[in-house]
Amino acid sequence: MIGICQNCGNYDWDKEVKGNQIICPKCKASWKFRKLPLFLLTGCSGVGKTTTGQAMLKRNVDFVVLDADMFYNLMPHETQEDYCAQVEQLEALSKNIMQSGKPVLWTMAGNLDKVNQVYHRRFFSDIYCLALVCTEAELRDRMRNGRGITDENWIQGSVDYNEYFRTHDTVYDLPFETLDTSGKTAEELAAQVEAWVQTKLKNH
């Protein structure tokens, strides 16, 4: 919505962004928008992203919490182009929601390589990423006993992804921080994620 030129009606994804100003290349009209940070809560399958997100909703946080799986369910997901399109729509939706004055936090496991590459990246002041991690033993227990997963390839894939987050601080070109979920309740994690978001917003 905010990317549509009210002067000439240009709705193409071709706008220039300078600070909090959008400029239409066709008629040179410009208008202001709210430029806020975008927040990502990531981590491997089974580490607790969805559970933490649900707990945040119960806290009535002053930011919008959404699950990126909605795009996987609504859009094609066979090729890299498909996944890029999902991230594009995720960011397009976020920029419009933020015009209400509230930032957006997404829970998402994959497609982190595309976050800084799509057209709509220019509409955010920053993108902050927090990866949930835990011990291998706890992750295996959560997947087998908590979620009833028996596919060993799936479990091992999550273990490997979790270990990557535990031992790195950047995924592709996206820096991230980590939060260890081991031994913590969903309510405790939600409080810590909320505090992390608020710290970033104060800096903003």
Description:
By secondary structure, the protein is of the alpha/beta class. It has 2 domains: 1-33; 34-203, 3-Layer(aba) Sandwich (Rossmann fold). Helices cover 39% and strands 18% of the residues. It is built from 6 helices and 10 strands; from the N terminus they run E-E-E-E-H-E-H-H-E-E-H-H-E-E-E-H. It has helices at 49-58, 69-74, 80-97, 136-146, 152-167, 186-203, and strands spanning 16-18, 21-23, 30-32, 38-42, 64-67, 104-107, 127-133, 170-171, 174-175, 177-180. The strands form 3 sheets. A 5-stranded parallel β-sheet has the order 5-6-4-7-10, sandwiched between helices. The chain has a 3-stranded antiparallel β-sheet with strand order 1-2-3, with no helix packed on it. Strands 8-9 form a two-stranded antiparallel ribbon. Strand 2 (21-23) and strand 3 form a beta hairpin. Helix 4 (136-146) runs antiparallel to helix 5.
Examine the coordinates and then state which fold CATH places here, giving the name of the CATH topology of the largest domain. Answer: Rossmann fold
Count of the separate structural domains: 2
Beta content comes to: 15-25%
Main sheet strand line-up: 5-6-4-7-10
CATH architecture of the largest domain: 3-Layer(aba) Sandwich
Categorize the overall geometry.
globular
Structural class: alpha/beta
Return the average pLDDT rounded to an integer.
95
Order of helix and strand elements from N to C terminus:
EEEEHEHHEEHHEEEH
Helix content: 25-40%
Instruction: Please state the CA-atom Rg, rounded to the nearest Å.
Output: 18 Å
Low-confidence parts: none
Distance, first to last CA: 24 Å
CATH level 1 class label of the largest domain: Alpha Beta
Largest sheet: 5 strands, parallel
> Can you tell me the CATH superfamily of the largest domain?
P-loop containing nucleotide triphosphate hydrolases
